[in-house]
Amino acid sequence: MEVQMKSKNGVPFGLLSGIFWGLGLTVSAYIFSIFTDLSPFVVAAAHDFLSIFILLAFLLVK
C-alpha cells in the first residue's frame, strides 16, 4: 500500500512543513542570539540536537 503526502496547490505538505520549520528556527535563533553572546548557528544546531532527542524519546515512550 502506497502512502502519499497530501498536497495543496501541487506543493507537498512535507515541503511546506520544512519551510515553516526552517523559517521559525532561523527567526528564533536570531532573536535568541541578540540577547546572548551565542551565534545564531550555535543556537540552531543546539535546537536541532535537542529536537532530535525529544522526538526520539517521544517515539520510544509511545
Automatic annotation (TrEMBL):
<keyword id="KW-0472">Membrane</keyword>
<keyword id="KW-0812">Transmembrane</keyword>
<feature type="transmembrane region" description="Helical">
    <location>
        <begin position="41"/>
        <end position="61"/>
    </location>
</feature>
<feature type="transmembrane region" description="Helical">
    <location>
        <begin position="12"/>
        <end position="35"/>
    </location>
</feature>
<protein>
    <submittedName>
        <fullName>EamA/RhaT family transporter</fullName>
    </submittedName>
</protein>
<keyword id="KW-1133">Transmembrane helix</keyword>
